[in-house]
Amino acid sequence: MTDSTLMETGGWEVKSKSECGGTFFITVSLVAVEKTYNYDRVSVETEWYEFDHDPTTEELQAAIDADGFDPTKPSCPTLDEEVAQSPDEQE
Questions:
Q1: Total structural domains within the chain
Q2: Integer angstrom CA distances of residue 38 from 13, 27, 34, 41, 46
Q3: What is the span of the domain harbouring residue 72?
Q4: Residue 49 has pLDDT above 60, yes or no
Q5: Model pTM score
Q6: Which of 15, 37, 34 is nearest to 26 (CA)?
Q7: If 0-12 CB within 10 Å is exposed, 13-18 middle and 19+ buried, where does residue 31 land?
């Protein structure tokens, strides 16, 4: 997937893969996009995963899913959510 496609639809892509002493380190860019009627809310995170073997795409997808990643639900709160959580608003 290209970076522009990720920013439009959400998803993930491997940014780097290395092996050291039989352990594989995979760095993944996770992009979540929520489309609304007047703007797109996008969050981009970088996560890394360790495997004791060179993982397949399915194994990597399973690890990402196990972490709860949803390409349609950005991890950053909306402005309304931030205001609702503000200590000033709760007094």
A1: 1
A2: 27, 32, 11, 10, 27
A3: 3-90
A4: yes
A5: 0.74
A6: 15
A7: buried
